[in-house]
Amino acid sequence: MRMLVFVTQQADPEHPVLGATAAQIAALAARVDEVLVLANGPVADGLPANCRVRSFAAPSKLGRTSRYLRALIPALAPRPVAVLAHMSPVYAVVAAPLARPLGVPVLLWFTQAGGGRLLRVAEPLVSAILTVDRRTVPLDSKKVRPIGHGIDVSAFRGVSGLEPQATLRLLGLGRYAPVKGWDVAIRALAELPDAELTIHGSTLTDADRRNRAELERLAHELGVRATFGDAVPRSEVPRLLAEADALVNPTRGNAADKVVFEAAAAGIPVLAASPVFDGFLPPELRFDGPHELAERLRTLDPAAANGLRAKVEAEHSAAHWADAVLAAGR
Hints:
CATH architecture of the largest domain: 3-Layer(aba) Sandwich
Distance between the termini: 15 Å
Structural class: alpha/beta
Strand order of the largest sheet: 3-2-1-4-5-6-7
Mean pLDDT: 93
Order of helices and strands: EHEEHEHEHEEEHEHEHEHEHHH
Largest sheet: 7 strands, parallel
Number of helices: 11
CATH topology of the largest domain: Rossmann fold
Number of domains: 2
Number of strands: 12
Low-confidence stretches: none
CATH superfamily of the largest domain: Glycogen Phosphorylase B
């Protein structure tokens, strides 16, 4: 029996930040006999029938580590095709000394501009580091393999026939962390009197909360039309995209936010700042700074989104991603 171990923070399809993980798990489950999901959080319904889910959540770090090992060790006995640690290098660091001597590959899925010490510790221990683009892992290593983002394309039906509006309806989705660059989008609005921006995002840290308050003050000072909402369940994202004229993603650095690919799959124009999208988005949908963003929006052509859904299907779908994960395990 072909079994894969998938270790993640959350296995909840409705989680605002990690809900997309469920589509990746489902794509893997369609290709193996069983997926054992080890989650550092509550277990939710909605995964395929051949997924077993165990939570190793505990009040302390020692408790979590102990429960993780108690779930992982027996799962290694039948020699799974791989252990895949999702976004958290610590899961791979703990698993590698146990799995690799048994011939079980340990894979780390990681896509983040900042890596930290644990990512450097994980690099020599794991079999491969899987990511969206070589630039989305802050390491110079031969183990880094770009495999796309793993988007549930079926959840984002192409949008067509939106009624023209006098106001350009812009959408922003993502944390209120300073790295997300929402100040750039708000400053661009000052040059676009006929545009409005709605942001939905989470505040996971004190820095996020302070930044949201600063963004609200900035919007008030500039007199622009900006609405600041909380994070929404994953199932709400397709509706929000369908109601927008364009998605704006001003995240700084070598980031590949999945919402860019989701908007592309939905068929709406998406404008992004990260240089990582230079091979995915045409020049007219990329920007650097508020003035250039305002210029792009002022001349925005909805036809600029044509063909982007097909690129997501070919290079960033959950099916493509799962095939690449299993190939890395071999």
